[in-house]
Amino acid sequence: MQLFYGVPEDIENWMKLVNQIRWNFPGLESWERLDEYKATVLKFMGKRQAICVKVGGDIAGVMLFSRGHNMICCLGVSPHFRRCGIGSMLMDEALRNLDRNKDISVSTFRADDEKGLAPRALYEKYGFVEDALIEERGYPHQKYILHPAKTVSL
């Protein structure tokens, strides 16, 4: 299991994983939406803001993050590789690339949505806290914020 920055040569394997888990992501229901997502991933790859974990030749987990917006944009892990630390590997790398002196945000499923159990637990493990209830792509979500660490000077 190894972490890599996504490159255009990875796009087919990346999309193979996304196609497996798209039922869990509102907004990826149609082929047109998947094509739009693919174009987005390629843009993120061009900015070195797309990371993936590979197991053998397969991509087992993916994440998009935005330095410009200081946020986690997308996180997905193959059902075959859940509870193996892939989400943590991706979070560790993304947080190394984001500005820890400012709020970092992510949007995920709400507390009453079973789709949110694993991602919410992961974000909370890293210190993210619940923020506003929002709606994205016609689906109820909740914003999470990781506030900058406060240091105490003596």
UniProtKB/TrEMBL annotation:
Pfam families, per database record: Acetyltransf_7 (PF13508)
PROSITE patterns associated with the record: GNAT
GO MF annotation, one: acyltransferase activity, transferring groups other than amino-acyl groups
Boundaries of every N-acetyltransferase domain copy: 1-150
Protein name, per record: GNAT family N-acetyltransferase
Taxonomic placement: Bacteria, Bacillati, Bacillota, Clostridia, Lachnospirales
